[in-house]
Amino acid sequence: MDAPSSLVPDMKPWIAGMHAYVPGKAKIEGRAVVARLASNENPFGPSPKAVAAMQAVLADGHRYPDPASTALREALAAHHGLDPARVICGTGSDELLHMAASAFAGPGDEIIHVRHGFAVYELAARRVGADVVVAADRDYVADVDAILACVSARTRVVYLANPNNPTGTIISASEVRRLHAGLPGDVLFVLDCAYAEFAEGEYEDGLGLADRAGNVFVTRTFSKIYGLAAQRIGWGYASEGVIAALHRVRAPFNVPTTGQAAAVAAVGDQAFVAGVRAHTLEWRAWLAAEIGAMNRAANAGIRILPAAANFLLLECAEDGPFSAAALNEGLLAAGVIVRYLAVQNMPRCLRISIGTEAEMRACAAALRVLLGAG
Description:
Blueprint: H1 13-16, E1 35-36, H2 48-57, H3 70-80, E2 87-91, H4 92-104, E3 110-114, H5 119-127, E4 131-135, E5 137-138, E6 141-142, H6 144-150, E7 155-161, H7 173-182, E8 188-192, H8 207-212, E9 216-221, E10 233-237, H9 240-249, H10 257-267, H11 270-298, E11 303-304, E12 311-315, H12 324-333, E13 336-337, E14 339-340, E15 349-353, H13 357-371
Parallel strand pairs: 1-13, 3-4, 3-7, 7-8, 8-9
Antiparallel strand pairs: 2-10, 5-6, 9-10, 11-12, 12-15, 14-15
Helix pairs in contact: 2-10, 3-10, 4-5, 4-9, 6-7, 11-13
């Protein structure tokens, strides 16, 4: 038998220019994990009602799931006061973000996202051969004027996460509306609200905006406050025309039966959601206060950004023992996994998810040792 050929097809040049998504660490080689705080997960897991719902449908694993996620769309529409025909579900909100680029952009088009925005935006744009335009931010916060200044005749999609990941920053409802008002009607405004449940104050989750405007697509997820990251369930809301386009590129049977059942039950257990939110806000404030006190005691040069999600972003010294790289290594040695953001061109930053009380205390104790703060 002849040896297999070493020739392989050439990938498209825009695919060759991509880099695969790098997830947060989940393990530490040769060491037990004390606190897993890298991926903004709900540390309590799903609602017990969601777990029971998954168990109830396991015997149907040989059957394809409902391709339209009908019960889930109806549950979401009832909870949020939406039209179920305009709700679409995806394999996490990641699939929905990719679908937006696939349906509305291609080679020669431009897609805009904010500097230090969610890494999937660039991947979604490059996957379809569109040109990526990065709008400057203002101290890690989205700058509406900078975004609008980037809009050209070739712009087809604008992505904005609010609250933003990985920075945790937020812009007001009035600024979201001002951004939308400044966009041409043929530009799709994708408002990624994965962390909406953790926001406070004057906040625009975009659902009302999407209800009124034909070019707004709001995305949400069950991976964060609902604790269903392993099931990969996202959902979005837009006009009938946008939804029709997205269905053309949606993968068939894209949300598993277990995920659909779990998500329906999770939406019905808002008491669980409220408990997770209360815990997150309490311990987010606690950890920020603890790190702030340590920083002052050690004169470490750490800045804690205002947080509107289920994590904190720390901007650290450029080098030395209090740099992000050094603190990350020290935390790993203590069994604490956080997200070192050098992979996202933020080498001075660490992102720390809000975990259980035990995880928060372990993280603070490890940082106290590293900072020599008592």
